[in-house]
Amino acid sequence: MLERHAANSEKLENCLTQLKSMPMAPKSKMWKFYNTTRAAFTELDREFVECRRLKKVTLKYTELEKTFEDCVTVFEQWAIMAALTY
After folding, report:
1. How far, in Å, CA of 69 to CA of 12, rounded?
2. CB of 13 closer than 8 Å to CB of 34
3. Upper half-sphere CA count for residue 58 (Cβ side, 13 Å)
4. For burial by CB atoms within 10 Å, which of 39, 46, 64, 81 has the most?
5. Which pLDDT tens digit goes with each residue over 56-68?
6. What range defines the domain where residue 17 resides?
């Protein structure tokens, strides 16, 4: 359970690293995608507290994890588009 959450945290950090390495023009537009991804992780992190309390992965955590994965995928796709465009 802890490894799973740490891997998700690492994905968020990778998104931030990608964002920081972009030129200014695409970076300003990519912040919207990063903020959506970060908000999804914040919700995931809140549910992780409940998972630790119950000592099991909840259904809500699994659903939020899927949403977070979708946000990361969208961010990465747009990062590729931004790299090709700028």
Report:
1. 10
2. no
3. 15
4. 64
5. 999 999 999 999 9
6. 2-85
Amino acid 86: pLDDT: 84
pLDDT at site 63:
98
Tell me how many domains the chain contains. 1
Longest dimension (CA), the chain: 47
Residue carrying structure tokens 């959506």: 36
Q: How far apart are CA 36 and CA 16, in angstroms?
A: 12
In angstroms, what CA-CA distances link 48 with 13, 22, 57, 68, 80?
Answer: 18, 31, 8, 13, 30
Tokens linked to 50: 């409940």
In whole angstroms, what is the distance from residue 79 CA to residue 77 CA? 5
